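Entry 12.
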Amino acid sequence: MSTATKPSRVVFPNHEALYKNYRAPQKHIFYNGDTYEFRKVVKRANANIHVYRCRKEMHTLKIYMGKYFPLFIEGVYSTEEVV
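Predicted 3D structure (tokens):
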């Protein structure tokens, strides 16, 4: 029996990997070399937006979700959180 622990975050090395493999909110994701913390889900009529924030880079990552996969990914650099 293995005693290996489950990773605490999901790793997406680049934009393409995020599009192909992202499916549901995680507490933390590792994207483009930085750790992003999950903030909230914003519900819209045509998509749910998963919002993540990287404090180190002051970058907000918004993932617009279709039923099962990302439709659009937006990144915003800002000193304050962006919704």
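Annotation: The CA atoms of residues 58 and 79 lie 6 Å apart. The radius of gyration is 13 Å.
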